[in-house]
Amino acid sequence: MLYLASDHGGFHLKETIKKYLEELGVAYQDMGANQLDPDDDYPDFAKLVSEKVVAEPDSRGILFCGTGLGMCLAANKFKGIRATAPFDEFGAQQSREHLDANVLCLGEKTIAEEEAKKIVQIWLNTDFSGDTRHQRRLSKIE
Questions:
Q1: What's the CATH fold of domain 2-141?
Q2: pLDDT in tens, 33-56
Q3: Is 72 known to be catalytic?
Q4: Which of 5, 10, 11, 102 would give a disulfide with 31, using CB separation of 3.0 to 4.6 Å?
């Protein structure tokens, strides 16, 4: 399963990506925010998605905030989460192929909608390479 969440800073981008995922036929569950609330806090939504991804090893998450960086920082506090905040297509590909990232973090204020769609598509369609060197490095992080 793919889990999505955003705070107010990423709410509109999350709604755009939800429509895009529907066009692609990708199933997802929206963990909130369900409405634009300028007083909500990104760590609350990062926690919701991170806990789901940790509990379901084959799942992934996408988190949205103003820059993607706050969500990334918060998500990476959870053991078993490998969150990344790529700003381009190459970073999205590398985050999956080399880092086996299970949470993607995107910023509404830093990435244009069309670029975000490309990043999401690449991130969803790229597998972890499983190369020994990448496994070794990830083991060191664990």
A1: Ribose 5-phosphate Isomerase B; Chain: A, (3.40.1400)
A2: 999 999 999 999 999 999 999 999
A3: no
A4: 5
